[in-house]
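6-carboxyhexanoate--CoA ligase
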Amino acid sequence: MVSIRMRASIRTGKKNRKKSADLHISGAEGIYDRAVIGEVVEGYIRRASGHSRGRPDRIDIKIEKITTAPKKIRSLPVTTITCRSANTAQRYILELLLLSGVSETAVQNAVKVAYNPMVMRGASLMCAQSGRRVEPDRQRGIRASRLGISHNALDILSRILDKAGINSDTVREALVLASKVACCKEVIAELCVSDDPDYTTGYVSSRKFGYVRVPHIKRRGQRCGGRVFFVRENSARDNVIAFLEKKPVLVDDVSECLGVLSINEIIGKHHI
Ligand code: PML
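Structure:
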């Protein structure tokens, strides 16, 4: 099997001290059989070239042999929380994270990261109690990578999400990523706000409540976004990073999609 990763960007010409900045246009990755490399790469290039955020002047594609058998996991169950405003979204983020074992200080710190206009390239790694950020590089962050979904599981997931009217690349890929992150025992929850100004649904995920989509997590047009992985206070940081970035993980079984539920229904239905 191989891991195939794509990243498309536009050079902005602006430079900071370390490197020239580039504007992220799109990205995708998966774990595939060698036989489909050509087809997947073609699809990734088509996708990178036709993105609404602009025409990239650079598309990086990395194809890497996977030398250890991927860990096979089940995707998190999916729900969408009933939420009609950005203020309510903030209350629900706080409530879901507190109930997952994240402290109020850590939630406040995470919100600053997730709504920062200076969008990080990866995610912040944050201690769930102290709210301390422990990622080695605050610009790069941590990239959950070497992840994918089997052909069969993708078919099933697409059908399930189709019925709920949420079957898009964005939802499927965010769910696969969140499912890998949640299967790391040291991670207790994740918060994600898309950096796409027009994409206003984010999520809070955890083993406890599953993948909870939060509409109106930001207002349309807001130029900010970010991801935070909350880890147990004294976890071995380097092991967590090695798992999230390097351990191949393949979703090969799919949990249910429970549709649109109220906060109380979601809290009453937790999964452990
Ligand atoms: C991103 O990749 O930009 C984040 C996507 C969040 C998806 C939330 C959803 O609609 O389920």
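The pocket of pimelic acid is lined by residues 170-171, 174, 192, 194, 196, 199, 201-203, 213 (CB under 6 Å).
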